Amino acid sequence: MFIAQSKRKENIAEYILYLWQLEDLLRALRFEPEAIRRTMVAPHQVDPGAKEELMLWYMELVDLLRREGREQTGHLDHTMHLIADLQRLHDQLMTLPAGRDYRQLAAPLIVELPTLRATLGREDAGEVELCFRALYSVVLYRMKGDDRPRTAIESVLQLVSPVVANLVAIYHKVERGETDLYKK
User: Fold this and answer.
1) Residue 145's domain spans which residues?
2) Which residue of 41, 121, 157, 184 sits 20 to 30 Å from the alpha carbon of 134, by its own alpha carbon?
3) Are residues 33 and 109 in the same domain?
């Protein structure tokens, strides 16, 4: 919760990936409150009230996963809505004059999207969702300590990371009112 709040303000991409990681961790703990308390709450060096608040937040995530039918797989609607927001921004940047620099940065990635789509098996996913799924795959490989896909990871990071970083920077500027995409 504390990390999520900070990430949401500072970097929406890290926030989304963090929540996806939490979803998988909660699933791995089988949504068992005692396992969640022991693994995810107890290690925090905060006062008991904050620990209880953190535990409630994790249990709210568990409740959301259950209500949305995501006990086994999938991601919360909340994060998918954020990705949809980023996709709309991406689409705007791909057509508006304000997106000229973004388009130049994204051009090499756009060429590789069919390969990425096939690799991830996500024919129906939008460009931004594909990027996040690729980044999350990297997170999972690193968590597993798997060195086999090192070249695939490096190529994904070289193409996806700069585009997502730029998209996120623009997203936060728009969110804070610091930039107007329609200004000439």
Assistant:
1) 77-175
2) 41
3) no
